[in-house]
Specification:
The protein is of the alpha/beta class. Helix content is about 30%, strand content about 15%. The chain has 11 helices and 12 strands. Strands 1-9-10-12-11-2-3-4-5 form a 9-stranded mixed β-sheet, with helices on both faces. Helix 5 links the parallel strand 4 and strand 5. Helix 4 runs parallel beside helix 5. The N terminus is likely disordered.
C-alpha cells in the first residue's frame, strides 16, 4: 500500500527503505584537499563558498552556474539578468563587491584564490541558465586565478541539468530529475581537474552512502532539509587520510523532488571509492520566503549577507565541513 501511494505522490515522497539517519561524523581529512562543486543554484553556491572561504577550499566546479553576487540580492534580477540575459552582467561590479567584502573581513582574503583550480561547465543549449554566464564567471575568476588553472567545458551540448554517463532523463530534455543521460562523466571531469592525482573511477558501494541529520547545522531561517548524505569510502571509514568534496544539488533536486538521486546517480561516488574522497551531499529545503524549489541561496532569500561567511546557508555548510574535519 505504501509503495503504491508513494508512486502516486512522487516526487514528494521518501521511500520507507531509506537507511537510518546518523549524526555526521569526523574523518581523517587532508585540509589541503577540500573542494566543492554544484549544479545550477548549487553551481552559484559553490562559487560563493569558494570565494568566501578561500582559505578552506583548494578548488571549485560550477555546472550551469554563474558569477559571484550575480543577482545582487535581487530575485528578479537573478531570473531576468543572470539566467536569461547574462550579456547584461557587468562582471566588474562582482569583482569589486568581492574586494569590498574581503576588505571588511566578511569573506577570506582573495589572494588565497591564486592556488585554486576552477572547473566550469556550460552548454550552448541550456535555455535556463544561458551560456553567457560562464563568460562572466571566467572574467571574475581570471581576476584572481591564473588562467591555466581554469578549465571551461561547453560540450556535450546538453539541456539544463547535470550530465552523467548513463543516469537520468534524455540529454536534450530539461526536466526532473535534472540528471541528464549524456554519455558524459561530469563528476569525473570535475574531480579530475580539481585533483591532479586521481586513478580511474571504481565502483561505488551502496552501504558506504550514509544519511545524516542536518538539524545540528541550522534552523528555520537557514533553511536546510531534515537530512543530508555523505559517501565514505571503506578506506576513509578505516582511518585513511582522505580528500573531501562537497557536492551541491540544484533547484528541484532535494529529497522532496528526486529523493536521493543526486547523491546516488550523479557519478561522484564511483570516483570517491577508488580515490579516497569523502563526498558530502548537503540538502537545501523549500522555504516560504521565496524559495519553493529548494534552491541554494544565490539570490538573497536568507538575508543580505547571503554571499558572505555569515550567510545562513553559507555558515551552515561550513559547520558541516568542520564537523567532517573534526574541528
Amino acid at each position: 500500500m505504501f509503495e503504491t501511494l508513494c508512486a502516486m505522490l512522487v516526487p514528494f515522497c521518501i521511500q520507507a527503505s531509506d537507511p537510518a539517519t546518523e549524526n555526521l561524523k569526523a574523518y581523517n581529512i587532508d585540509p589541503h584537499s577540500i573542494t566543492i562543486s554544484g549544479v545550477s543554484s548549487g553551481g552559484f553556491m559553490a562559487v560563493q563558498m569558494d570565494v568566501a572561504f578561500s582559505s578552506v577550499f583548494s578548488g571549485a566546479g560550477a555546472v550551469a552556474g554563474g558569477v559571484y553576487w550575480c543577482s545582487e540580492g535581487d530575485s528578479k534580477k537573478a531570473q531576468s539578468q543572470c539566467m536569461g540575459s547574462p550579456e547584461k552582467i557587468d562582471s566588474r561590479l562582482m569583482i569589486e563587491k568581492a574586494r569590498e567584502l574581503a576588505a571588511l573581513g566578511e569573506i577570506d582574503l582573495l589572494e588565497n584564490l591564486r592556488t585554486h583550480r576552477i572547473y566550469i561547465f556550460a552548454s550552448p543549449k541550456d535555455s535556463v541558465v544561458k551560456l553567457g554566464n560562464s563568460d562572466k564567471l571566467m572574467e571574475f575568476y581570471e581576476s584572481f586565478v591564473p588562467a591555466s588553472q581554469i578549465h571551461r567545458v561547453t560540450t556535450p551540448e546538453t539541456a539544463h541539468g547535470f550530465p552523467t554517463l548513463s543516469n537520468g532523463g534524455p540529454c536534450s530534455m530539461a526536466a526532473l530529475p535534472w540528471l541528464l543521460k549524456c554519455n558524459f562523466d561530469t563528476a569525473g571531469d570535475i574531480l579530475s581537474h580539481l585533483y591532479s592525482d586521481l586513478v580511474p573511477r571504481g565502483s561505488a558501494v551502496t552501504e558506504n552512502l550514509h544519511k545524516f541529520t542536518q538539524t545540528d547545522f541550522g534552523d528555520s531561517k537557514t533553511p536546510l532539509y531534515r537530512d543530508g548524505w555523505i559517501y565514505v569510502p571503506e578506506a576513509c571509514e578505516k582511518g585513511a587520510r582522505c580528500k573531501l568534496h562537497v557536492a551541491l544539488h540544484g533547484c528541484q533536486m532535494n529529497p522532496d523532488f528526486i529523493q536521493d538521486k543526486f547523491a546516488t546517480q550523479a557519478g561522484y561516488n564511483d570516483w570517491a571509492e577508488s580515490n579516497k574522497i569523502v563526498v558530502l551531499y548537503p540538502q537545501s529545503a523549500r522555504d516560504s520566503r521565496g524559495n519553493p524549489y529548494a534552491c541554494w541561496d544565490w539570490f538573497g532569500f536568507t538575508g543580505p549577507d547571503y554571499v558572505s561567511k555569515s550567510g545562513a546557508q553559507m555558515s551552515a555548510l561550513m559547520k558541516m565541513i568542520e564537523r567532517v574535519r573534526g574541528l
